[in-house]
Amino acid sequence: MFALEEYKQRLETVKKRMVDEGVDVLLISNPSNMFYLTNYSAWSFYVHQMMVVTLEDAQPIWIGRQMDASGVGKTTWLDEHHIISYPDFYVQSTERHPVDFVANILTEIGQSARTIGVEMDVHYFTALCYERLKHGLPNAKFKDTSSLVNWVRLIKSQKEIKFMKRAGKIVEKAMTAAYERVQIGVRECDVAAAIYHAQIQGTPEYGGDYTSIVPMLPTNENTSSPHLTWTDKTYENGDFLTIEIAGAYRRYHAPMARTMSIGTAPNEVKELAKIVEEGIEATLDFIQPGMKAEEVESVWSKTIGKYGHRKSSRLGYSVGLSFPPDWGEHTVSFRPGDETILQPNMTFHLMPGIWYSDYGVEITETIRITDKGHELLTNFSRDLYEKPVLGILPDEQTS
Amino acid sequence: MFALEEYKQRLETVKKRMVDEGVDVLLISNPSNMFYLTNYSAWSFYVHQMMVVTLEDAQPIWIGRQMDASGVGKTTWLDEHHIISYPDFYVQSTERHPVDFVANILTEIGQSARTIGVEMDVHYFTALCYERLKHGLPNAKFKDTSSLVNWVRLIKSQKEIKFMKRAGKIVEKAMTAAYERVQIGVRECDVAAAIYHAQIQGTPEYGGDYTSIVPMLPTNENTSSPHLTWTDKTYENGDFLTIEIAGAYRRYHAPMARTMSIGTAPNEVKELAKIVEEGIEATLDFIQPGMKAEEVESVWSKTIGKYGHRKSSRLGYSVGLSFPPDWGEHTVSFRPGDETILQPNMTFHLMPGIWYSDYGVEITETIRITDKGHELLTNFSRDLYEKPVLGILPDEQTS
């Protein structure tokens, strides 16, 4: 848990943004935003729950399922008057909806005719949530504040940076575990198991948290599709794979991707890996506070463009605190048109992955913007790793 | 992957329900429902994607992000005409929304003025998705079909049962790993790491898949709140904990919860565990096809009621195939008012957890309804497990 003062400061900043947006009441559905303001981290977001911020109240109000209320009391700074729970018969019912209950609470506390900010494009605020809210609060006005709190989260505090550095140490351990475990005859699931073990065990000093995206380790032609996970096939000599994982410490993430092969990698993979490495180095050399997000992408594009390569997807995005299903913060993206000015203590997943129809390469870094440039949050060679094959001499290895 | 015939049969059943509901087009946002119809399982649901089922077309159409299209082609039975992707600049943009693209496709294929079923209360169909859809298709009618496909999934095929039994073997291994690892001086995260490793490694014959909910293992007073995960605190003599986990095999789940202590458990935990065990045994003795879901709950309530105990939350729910954030299928619940008639090859997580303000007990089973009664999908003692403490004789153990 952060110091109470840090939570109060965060809440004050959120309230200022609410005023700027002309919003009297903010309804938070995004678990990352709930955690940011209160430290609430239980896996209870699979049922509807919300946090209510009003301009007047010194604490947010949590509204959720009965069996989760005690966990809110035990793990957050909210007092008992700010923890309100609905009976279990609201859960996945075709007759009642938890948001009906939320609307009634808002009415009871005199907030039914206000301008209410809702996170319109957040996974946990479904279409039906909004319909029930409009039905229950016919005199309210609604405004889309999908990423209001997300933008407050953009610049990290010293303690948040410390947490992300711990996450960085954890992802180094997890990637090392993958490198060690991959071998001919080993199954993809065995490698995934080794990654998970390292992620969760953490270091002797601090334990790991679950990551908001599971390990993704597609092999061979499946590397063309970065979000495939794993199978129970065994690796063969000459296989290549991308490994995209994160370390997490108390919900703060440091993602990292690397590309490796068993024995010699195919030539096209080797060549693409070199170009991606050159591109990421050129981009890192260039990054500094004061520049626009789209400029970061432009350096990358020019560097790989010299070799005739092109990446159609964004080059990266802000990261930090998150809950499933995504570790991105949904604010800044490194892509044309994003004119956000980089500032110290913004943190990004610099994501130079290139995916062609039958193969792909991913070599990525989590970085912090510093006063003068950038700092890597992990320390791990970016080279394509060609794992020596057990029992086969190098010149016998197939490509 | 299931046989093509099984996918086609599933699709036919879905189309029949669409006709019953008066729906011409079904938009699927729930990743479990996408997987059920096509085998698509990538972790790409953190960006908007949809599957379109029309009454006329012999295949669903997948619409999603460009970098994910190749994975759909490589892992499903959809042909290239049924895989449509949107450019990356739609992702998390404030100017464009992926559902605008979906609306355009529906218009192009002549479905813009139909009755369209949407999954109104599904995590991945946000309020904004619905607003953009209404905006893009002003001549369409919309109908809530949140659980249309979920209900089709309720009765499992023989192969689905086989997958769930494999998941059952995996969760036995994961619970065993937890029992073995818990000890004085060991951290909660070390136990979680052991659970994950066993879950993902699976058995020598088949590997494990990630589970839709992470391991939950609250300790001592935190057992009052079942959805707390873990910390990096070390266990002490006399600690008790609930462990709720699942095994997963190719997205099919078998959840299980148990309660254990390090050394002697507190008396109130022991007593409650005995009552929960008696309750679950009485309930299992009673379960058979032909009865109503609410009757299952009623036997349980009467049994524990004799001892003055009461559980206010539902006693269980249907399980099987799932994606995060929930392993429940969102159809049948064991609770008053649910009059669904149990039928062979329905599968449930029978969930007798009781949570009081300072402690809780969970002892659960995943079951299949058979022709005459039920079958457990796991084989694991339900007794409260009091782990012998290393280096301390039993009569020295504190309670």
TrEMBL record, chains A, B:
A Pfam family recorded for this sequence: Creatinase_N
Peptidase M24 domain segment(s): 163-371
Coiled coil: none
All residue ranges annotated as the Creatinase N-terminal domain in the record: 10-155
InterPro entries per UniProt: Creatin/AminoP/Spt16_N, Creatinase/aminopeptidase-like, Creatinase_N, Pept_M24, Peptidase_M24B
PANTHER family listed in its UniProt record: AMINOPEPTIDASE (PTHR46112), XAA-PRO AMINOPEPTIDASE P-RELATED (PTHR46112:SF2)
Name recorded for this polypeptide: M24 family metallopeptidase
Origin species: Halalkalibacter alkalisediminis
